[in-house]
User: Fold these one by one.
Assistant:
Number 1:
Amino acid sequence: MTAQTILDEFALGMALRDVASTEQSGVVVVLSTRRDAHAPDFDLDAVTRATGPDGRVLVVPAHLTSQLNARLGDDFTVYGGAARVFPVRRADAPYAAPLVGSRNTTKKARLDQLVRHIERAWAASAPPPTPTVGAPTAPQAGRPDLTFAAGAVTPVDSPDMAVALAAHLLNPERTRPALLLTRRAGDHRPPVDVSRIVQDVGTLVDIFEMGTGEVSWAFSEALARFPGTECYGGAGRVYPVGLEWTTNLDRSPLRFTWDASHAAATTEALIRDALASSRLSSYTAQPIRARRVTGTVKGSVSGRGLVSLDQGGMATIWPELVVEDVDAEHLVQPGMRVEGDLDEATGRLDVAASLITADVALATFQHDDLVTARVVAVEREIAVLEIFPGVQPVVPAEDIVSGRFVIDVRQWLTVGEILSARIVQAGEADDDWQLSLLDVDPDEAPLPAPALLPGGPPWLPEPLAWDAEPEPEASDVEEPTVDRAPEPVPSVTPPPTPVAEAPPAQQPPAREPQPTDDALRVMTAERDALAREVARLQDAADADADELKRLRRRGRDQDQTVSRLTKQLAAKDKQLAGVEGILEDRDRDRNAFPDPAEQFRYEVDLEWARRIPAAEKPNLPRASYLLGADFLPSLAEVSDRDRAKAVEVVIEVITGRVYDMPGRRTHQMRTGAGGDDAYLSRADGATCWRVNLQHGTPQARRLHFWALPTGEIELSSVRIHDDMRP
């Protein structure tokens, strides 16, 4: 392990997320630097060796110590070259983080003091950070060995077997996930579908079954160092390989079945957990009989992709064994071609080798694209979005919620939510991507999420609008519901129970004297009634959670709308200010000279300078022009807008462009209305021409001018459509 030097405030916040909290899993050493130094006063290599591979060493430069101390609090300040050691919190002991910072001792003495504090911190931390943490001890006399077989359920029916199971789970060398199913007190089987679990994942994980009572108590005591990892009371749990689950309970969620109506959902959840853990534990072990096959996807059934093989027969694609947290409908679609290894014993088709890589899938994403993303983590000041499996940019609060006030991001986003995000910067690594939720129009459709397999569907569904109603589940539409009075709970007070039926968050049950059969029946009825009430409350809580998500989406959409309209208003204000400035300039330009002829020539010169690009000016010079006796008086009768149009057309006339512009309909005037009448001309050889100033309006105005034999132009007059005077 190497020390991490903190470069900015964001990196500081990320590094301190779990320091001095109950989520800290190893010793953390924070080293500050003095303002006149670029490195800490302690030997980094020695501190790193003392901290060990399971700890962390953070180096915080002097300019970040104020932010460091603001995050750590007054009790844990570190600055001026000092160092502080943060051990792992223990529930049974007060928390102390010793500081080493005296400069009155030698450098070696300070280092020795810091190393001693690090060693004491590891000794006081739970669990101890040694490679043999949780390794099974040698069998004791009379204790049975834990034996189990793949594809079968191993019963754990004695306290010694429960202790042996705990030792097996805590063995860091374990190579297969373990799935533990428990029975409620008085029940003879777990509440989930055991046969379905064995059929689907029996060859991938080791399955154990344990009753609740004396055996589950022994199992809980064996895992006492790792609170929250026990399992009892009809619950089920998958224990992945490794030891991360001992400190991160999200790696091993407890699945509890409240009543019979939840049994199917719990069964599916345990199967998904088992498949995900199997994939993460390198489920690419070659099956007993495998062959390379190709086929066509027919659809998805019960969360599995159904494939018709070219070699004959059918196969299934299990999404959980391919990629994390993606449904079959977003991995495969009917008609797409697939190729993979077929496990002939189970009929599973492994297509993981065909997964599209992130750099290929995201190659077309560009700046300002609106893309589909999934929320994978939310904290107070940041959110982590996923635009492709494994590509998870961090979005700060200022790019999520607009406004002057700091708002807790957790009030706006929900883990697992699908939303639209604007790409501010595209990249390769997570840190290269920058996303924003501010400049998002709720009515703008994002780009479809990339496919995970060639020819596959988008890996994420389209984001829901805030007013979208959730689709009813099958159980909601099978039959009408009938209002019933709640079932009464027996009023008989039962004697003390050997096992208290409690949700997973409560303490393991206490062992007490066995009740009588009558009392057990009363307790069972009470338990079932309470379980139904818990299920009802759980359903109500789920409905409230869905409504909260909807309201969050609505609030976010409204915030985005306000932000977008604010930007548009600012742009309009800027545009209006520019227009007002132009109008002021034009007003000044139209009153620059008292002489009308001089004023008009000034307007023509100014318009030519503005309208003709610099590169074209040499090819479009202004021809010499004269002002006829009627021109300025007729021009004075038109509005300012028509005058500006007349100046524009004059530019086209004196540069010769007017003859190449069909819209102007430039033509010679005749002496009469007939098509055979002669063209109008003067004694000096000049010919009269007519040009459109306006189109599609009553009495549209026309510009009349004389083309002189010398090449000069004489502006004659501005007339209406029916006025044919030169």
Number 2:
Amino acid sequence: MKGNSADSSISPVAAGFSGKAMQEKLARLGIANEFDLVLHLPLRYEDETHLYPIADVPADRTVQVEGVIIHSAVMYRPRRQLVCQVEDGSGVLFMRFLNFYGSQVKAYSVGTRVRLLGEVRPGFFGAEMVHPKCRVVSAGTPLADALTPVYPATAGLSQEAIRKLIRQALARSDHAGSLAEVLPVEIIKHHQLHGFRDSVMFLHQPPPDASAILLQERTHPAWRRIKFDELLAQQLSMRLHYRQRRSRSAPALTEKNKLTNALLQSLSFKLTGAQKKVLAEISRDLAAVHPMQRLLQGDVGSGKTVVAALAALQAIENGYQAAIMAPTEILAEQHYQKLSGWLAPLGITIAWLSGSQKKKQRQAALADIATGGAMLAIGTHALFQEQVEFSQLGLAIIDEQHRFGVHQRLALRMKGAKTGAVPHQLMMSATPIPRTLAMSYYADLDVSVIDELPPGRTQVVTKLVADIRRDEVIARVRESCQAGKQAYWVCPLIEESEVLQLKTALETYATLTLTFPDLKIGLVHGRLPPQEKTAVMAAFKQGAIQLLVATTVIEVGVDVPNASLMVIEHAERMGLSQMHQLRGRVGRGAEASVCILLYQKPLSAIARERLKIIFEHTDGFEIARQDLHLRGPGEFLGARQSGVPMLRFADLEQDADLLAAARIAAEEMLRDHPASAQRHLQRWLGEKSEYLRV
């Protein structure tokens, strides 16, 4: 989160922003104004406040020494390099440059006094520094009086230039009062926070005796203050937008229990306790006069679809339409098939909308939605396109919500705003969100969690198998299919190219058709025409296909209880949540199920870590927590991050205690100190605090 503080009204020219080239370089670092410079904090520090005698330099540490060059030569073995001998009275040290300019050969001549900063290591000639930071000095040149900050930099902007700009910005901001305290005294005392000005000054210019470890680990009280302020700004922003939404009006969709009870009685299973709990929360929200904004999360196979169906029925019972939007045609169609089976017997007309529909079918669906003939519309992103008009939309349900951007979600919700009332919104995710992420980036939503699986779901056994043992895997697939079971063979994910991914799928299908001439094999991928895709999936579900070769399009929503074996090729290329989702396609019946992760060596460190996590864990929340730790929140959030203030300083795992404290402080400030809350938001977000509309 970059600051656009109203406190900093210094002109761009005064702030060192003169010249378009300079502005562009600073923009690459996310610096647009004076206060951005104040919050451009160091990555690390160099200690130029001490000098070590050459004879006493500690091993494996970056240190500073000073001495006179007693020998300097350009050597050509094994390659061209500049080698100098530096002597300080206690010993001799070699400095070696593999890349150097003629000006350096001149500057580092015999008799020159130099100050070197670097790591001393044993070398061919003796103790040496390779490419140290080297300055020509005079005898008695004073040492630095503070640790030297090393800032995030960009091409064409040296550390010295950044340091100069920041020193100027700090002096001007301090003079202008921009670093003054904006938090109430009670909050500072209660959370034992250091002052804001002192923290900023300390981090830019730490004294020589500052703890290098606390600074490096970012646990020093000065760092904790900055991180607290950043988290507080995010919490304030999210809570304000949460309040803003609750101030709008929505249709009160009260419980009638006629259609909902009819559906419950027709089902072949009973709802779990967790499903009943989340349904009660959703039901209560729908009955309120302000728009529901709830995230329903549950692990793969926990039964979110039936909860969505019951929520849709509550809207329909009140004379309002419901819409269910899914990110892929396969998933949207799964919902359409499943909900048609449940709701058509109750007399409810369902409209189906997708991008690949024939014009005639599409126009019929659009007419049904516009007149209210269809009380439920199911589809892909085609649902929020301009020509789609609802008669009276009361509830928008978005599945796998992280796959849609902010504007797409907003567009669907605005479909019901004609009447002046905003539709209720239910978002669903089978990618569980770690608690710290939910507290931070989802603080503007109410969250419901289905935290138990329906009875009868079997634990899936995960096996890691190197590609050289492919023959064993083939034997396992043949044995399983001949025993009357079904299997998936998932092709590798190729991010760079859908064409390459399709080629791989076609090749895999051809190879497996030759390998298993006795098996009925099907193929499904993203480029397959929708009718063919539907036909293949239906044949697999009915058991007419024994082995389904598929790309990752089957990641979500596919439900075939007789499929008890899955092979994932090149598992080392997959993300954790994707592997977990894919694995959730088996184990949906009573039969013991196995997921084989075929991987190719050599493995990168992160691929090895991912495979270890998916092998050791089956709980989606634990996998998500470890995934967050591996990847950080940016990637994890997907499209949601558009319009969400991202964190630069705080770490959600390491600083979970600060996040909890910031949540409490945000509520206190909004209740008791609204002016302080506004000033704090202005300091950290500026005009960006008007972000979160969805």
Number 3:
Amino acid sequence: MRWSQTLLPTLKEIPAEAEAISHILMIRAGLIRKLTSGVYTYLPFGLKVLEKVEAIVREEMDRKGGQELLLPAIQPAELWEKSGRMKALGRDMIQFEDRHGKLNVLGPTHEEVITFLVKNEVSSYRQLPLILYQIQTKFRDEARPRFGVIRSREFIMKDAYSFDRDQAGLNESYSRMYEAYREIFRRCGLRAIPVEADTGVMGGDVSHEFMIPAVNGEDRIVLCEQCGYSVSMDKAECLSPAEPETTDVPEKPLQETATPNLRSVAEVAGFLKVSPSELIKTLIYVIEGKGAAVLVRGDHEVNETKLSRALGGAEVKMADAQTIEKLTGGPVGFSGPVGLKNLKIIADVSLKGGSDFVSGANKADTHLLNVNEGRDFKADLWADLRDITETDACPRCGKVLNITTAIEIGHVFKLGTKYSEALDARFLNEKGENLPVIMGCYGIGVTRIIAACVEQNHDNSGIVWPLSLSPFQVVVLPLGPNPELIQVSEEVYEGLKNVGLEVLLDDRDLRAGVKFKDADLIGIPLQVVIGEKGLARSEIEIKVRKSGAKSVLPRAGVCEGILQLLKEL
């Protein structure tokens, strides 16, 4: 392909709206352009990368026995009502009424649709096991789209679904998909870490996320280098503290103290000269329409996924300032567990048996000293509610933990019978028993893979594509208007195409410096530099984009030499 005839608009400047390095470079290198918030156009360069990702996904899914189909993006809302997920996804769901007044959604995922299909097409154990997959555009009305295609409102996913007779069959399907994912990410040049994960609104009891460590990752993962423990922040288990030792020291009396306009943990701890761990942080939530006080230590943060899980999957939402004052009697920043009425108290296990805490007094500019659990307040529910920290020990081996940010690019679930029971997808087994199909679900963020690849494969000059995803394998850079130089460049370009390579010829009438900068920015693995000095010696320079290593090939054998270099990448 000739650059002069290609829509490949590179940019020197950093786009104002871009935060993540992948977002910046995907725009600067001419892969994408923003249409509106969270919605992007893929330009020819970006589409070639996307198609390569999809090809790898298809090859590995087919290799594991998957069958591709295509499910509709428009889905009747009644299916989501039957599964119970209409409320769970809430405003993230893009909904519309058709001309007949029927409510529809633009599919954010396809569990309901695929289950409906199998319900009507599969009736016997002889038709199982079955793995079906698709590569499809999904839609979610994200409250805050960010980081380009990492969190967008329209995106492409590969989702697969397994259907089995029993748990043993599900385990086998799950294992096959798990291994397929590892191979997909390896072939895409990604260092993916599988971690235990929360199942969330998808349901089921077992799931793993595939994470790409990245500075701009939205998620956090917890790793132990000693024993290999790897888990998402929402699933990381915090060990319960040891039971406090009993002493004969008399308890200190509860005492009010003035804390004028001091609301945050840091402000109160500094003023009272105590550690943040000696404070009880009291957060007021609305849970299924009712108020609740959630307690954690001052140096800890509430994990809302854990909170919801402790409450059986209930929807949890932080109360606003007006609701807090109505429920506690005091303003924001001064809530505490002592004296609360008609509020359920849900406490993190780290507070159990603790004494001499500081907490809000549910009164403006006032805190309480010497708050004791058991004497001054009692929790209605104890649970692991907080984010794990690097000061916590590994729950498996007791060693040091490492917490890092990451991008989720894949998620696999053992769904069990959640959807088959809700939508009545059943089969007859060998004994003639009518049983619900056992399901698994396996998703890959196809467009996210591109961003993740850029996050892991770039330098100060631009993208460094792995050979498997690069839109072209070679870029030919003629440096100057010399007719002989142009002719040789054309010969090399045609020769490389004839041996089956994907080649970009930079035939633009631009300075050598501009061509070099653009070539580094777009990140094609091999750069073929054709200059006058080299031609005088019948030599052509080759630069490896990743390492910067340069070599010289004879003009007569340049195509064969390039083929050999590509094999070594």
Number 4:
Amino acid sequence: MSAKKRGPGRPPKNKSRRKPAASHTLPPYFWSQVGGILLGVVTLLLTAGLFSTGGRLPIQFARLVRSLIGWTAFVIPIIFTIQIVQIFRQPDKRMPTAIWISTVLFLTLMSGLFQLTLADPTAEVIAARGSGGGLLGWRVASWTLGFVNLPIAAFVYIVLMLILLLFIFSIPPKAVVDTVRDFFQSNTAEASTDDKKDDDSIKIGGLQEGELKRDRKAKKDDGDGEEKKHHGLGLLSKKDKGDEGEVRPRPHDPIEVNSASKIEKAAVATPVSTPINNSNWQFPKVTELSDSRHGANPGDVNKRAQQIESTLSEFGLGGSVRKVNVGPRVTQYCIDPQRGIPMSRFANLDNEFARNLAVESVRIEAPIPGQPYVGVEIPNKSAQSVSLRMILESKEWAEHTSPLEFAVGLNITGKPVVLNLADLPHLLIAGTTGSGKSVMMNVMVMSMLFRNTPDDLKFVLVDPKGNEMSSYIDMPHLAAPVISGTSQEELHKLTKTLLWVTEEMDRRYDVFREKGGIKKLSDYHKKFPDDKMPSIVVIIDEYTDIIDSLKSTEREAVTTAVQRIAQKGRAAGVHEVIMMQAPRAKYIQGPLKANIPAGFAFMVRSKMESQQIINQSGAETLMGQGDMLMITARLKKPRRVQAAFVDDGEVERIVTELKMQSAPQYDKTLLARLNDDTPVGGGVAIGGGSDDDKYQEAVRIAIESGQASASFLQRRMGVGFQRAARLIDEMEQNGVIGPKQGSRPREVLIHSLDEIQ
């Protein structure tokens, strides 16, 4: 029987497979660490030889080094010791090549400088004996003296050596200049202002001009009075604690401190829209607002940076504070994390940071959008005042010229934040009592009053509390009287007003179509500047309280109107701002939330409420009094802002000035509807009075066709759109037709002309 042939590629049966030999694997950065150890051995030998101890080898080695670089040999052990420490502090346990080259150049220049101290710097014999700069110093000095004299050569060496030191330790030259300047200025200030011992302001990286004195009391409150603050450099001097494998900041790594010491004012007045009918309208002056300003006090940034790094070490996380952003209410410490650590491990340390730093609350942003850092936001010891006038006088406000632009406040770096409501195009605002949402509403309204006449802008204000918007009663910019309180009469007016807003919105779209396919209000103004439609801003306070107070029929009408405005209002120039204390999903339903991407979250009670406004938690850790998180369609993650402040006295003063220029300019159609007692949706009493001779014909057409709309009457009767819309309004008021129901035609409530009384 023949042997079975084995397939191709199969090993012979009688040959056993060889096992691969075991390999030896070295730990990461093994040779780099060995190099640091060998450098330490060389340093030890040189040090012993310089003091003629240790035996023949160290002594001969030291003589050789001295003959080469002279007295610089005594500096090498110090420099090498620093370099060894730096090697083991680096993530990859090695020094960059640029640092080694800079060190060699520094030693070369030092040898040349030592050589210049000799009576005859050009004497080679003396240098070879180890005096001055040695043979290397003799070469450098001799070459330099061939071009310049000795004083200039020494000056050049010193300048170049200082530059190399700054490069090695990553210190910006400006920081040195600022530190020296602050030192002399602070000494001068202390000598001349001994009577101001209670001044607790501090100067950090140019944070506050004129506040250069460090209060001894503030230093005592900070705890460790022995720790030195390096204002310009921000040098860390913490001891190396924790495990050896963790990333630690180098002893002289600078912390970049960013702060807005002064908001840049606009060079020219802010342009405003051109009034149409109110041609003599006088806009309020910014100077009539209060100008209270004082800077923030973040405390000892270096001490807090050390506490942050110590907290990270407790949880086995590596990271160093690289940058500090001093904001008006909080200071953001930017941590450069060790590679390979998940961001989630940082995000859950807010309570630990608050405990170790002994502060009220801490917010963590991991990572900071657009930056390779993790942000730890810590409350300042004292907050910066943020007035409305400060924003309206800023360069940022002048650069944004939209009529619906409004001031928001200062961001985490102290820069003014300005938004355009037309771009948002609607806004949700939530926050507990005292968090600042009502002040934000006043800031928004006041900002727009500085740029709009009553012909440019109309407000619809809903105030369930009855006292938040009382200053705006009878203001010329109102489309209707302020809806105040939650009585059945006021809620009935609210329903009628919102239905009017939706009908006005639909009417504008009909006009856009009739005028040749215009898409939005701004295009209509450009094409027909003499027929200006004002923008409409609907502001509803305590929305949840209103919904709970409405009857079922009116509740459905109000929620439908609010949702339709959010869906279609932008292009028609209709915008809404909805405010509430406790946002819930049942009040902010899916379609409404989908069409209002912008949200201001002031301090709320729970993470769930924060999620409803900004789509993530964080607002529950805010501090109140204008501290907020802001999100828009253009922002992927919320931004922290300290909202601007305007008090009731300023609002009253500005609005009173506007009232003196004009009586209320309410919309006549809306005002007539509010004065009519007909229930929403029609009633049993049907009136037939009208001053328009086309009214009877319009009613007949509606009955015969079973439908009614302004565009339909315009086509059938050959009248203008404005007249047709007025006829529709009158038929609805008289109970002939029902209210508009979305895209469906209006319901005709009567069947013959005989029913008209």
